[in-house]
Every structure is written in C-alpha cells, then in structure tokens.
Amino acid sequence: MDAFLSSTLLVALGEIGDKTQLLSLALVVRYRKPWPILAGVIVATLVNHGISVWFGDWLAGAIPTHWLRWILGLSFIALGLWMLIPDKDEEVGDKYRFGPFLTSLVLFFIAEIGDKTQVATVALAVRFQEFWPVLLGTTTGMIAANLPVIWVAHRLASERFEVWAHRISAALFIAFGVWALI
C-alpha cells in the first residue's frame, strides 16, 4: 500500500503545471470529447509507465544494493530540482488526422518520454520493487492531475475559452519562469 500511495502522491504533485496538463487542455478544447481523451491518457500512461516500472525493477536487480541507496537518493534530489524548471508549451497541431482517443494516446505517450514523471516512475520502481502498486499508483496520480483539467476544459470549452486558455497557459509559463529565476 505504501508503494501505491507514494507513487500516486508523487506523480499527482509532480504533474501540477506540467506540459501534459496543458496537452490535456488543448486536446479537450480542440475535440470537445473528454471521455476518449481521458481513455487515451490512461492507456498511454499505463504503457509508458509500465515500461518505466519494468526498467526500474530491472535496475534494482542489476545494481548492487549499497550503490542503489546513493543513486536513488541523488535521483530524487535531481527530480526535485528538475521540477523547479517549467515545461515548454507544445503545439497539438492543426490537422485532425486521427480521432481524440488515438491522438491523445500518441501525444501523451510521446510527451511522457523522458518527462519528470517517467523518471520518477523508474525511481519509485527501484525504491519499492513492486510492479503493480507502482504502476497503478503513478497512473492514478496522472489521472488525479489531468482529470480536473479535462473536466473544467470540457465544461468551459468555446472559442473564447481557447483564447483565454492560451493566455492563461502563457501567463503560467511566465510565472513559473520568474519563480524559477527568483
């Protein structure tokens, strides 16, 4: 239970203001279909974090225990510092080539590659060495961070909202930038 709760909390907090939240917002504003977008987010997270947990479990078995404590401790410190650096806004694109589910799945999977939460998932897997609790915890944390964004964006979606969403996103990035510099 400790692995699940720790994983959920760490990822949910780490996702606040992350580029994947902005991606969720952009997808809902574009497609106005929250359920397929949420499903795409869940599947992408399960696959991406599943690979990450597997890799973390492998690392835990491949690295000597006395080194593991140091690597893990320094990894968490590095993640804490990395979270201070604001993410860059990424464009969803103008073409409606695929539907909301497939677009969400592919974009979310790609956005998570090398992201803070993927690195945190590997570190959590090394720390707890419990595949399912870590995978389900990190996925629950991702949903906890993105579901409110998807729900609010769906409720308020309109062309006017899209303009304001972009302005608010820009303001948040500027605020995070200033905050990171202070």
Walk me through what this model shows:
The chain has 182 residues and is mainly alpha-helical. It contains eight helices and no strands. Helix 2 packs antiparallel against helix 3, helix 2 packs antiparallel against helix 8 and helix 6 (116-128) runs antiparallel to helix 7 (131-156). The longest helix is centred in the first third of the chain and has 29 residues, at 34-62. The protein is globular.
Shape: globular
**Class by alpha and beta content:** mainly alpha
Mean pLDDT reading: 81
Query: For the CA atoms, what is the radius of gyration?
Result: 17 Å
Describe the secondary-structure layout.
Elements lengths: L1 H14 L3 H13 L2 H29 L2 H18 L17 H13 L3 H13 L2 H26 L2 H23 L1
Helix pairs in contact: 1-6, 1-7, 2-3, 2-5, 2-7, 2-8, 3-5, 3-6, 3-7, 4-6, 6-7
Comma- or semicolon-separated keywords:
8 helices; single chain; about 180 residues; globular; mainly alpha
Q: What is the structure about, briefly put?
A:
With 182 residues, this protein is mainly α.
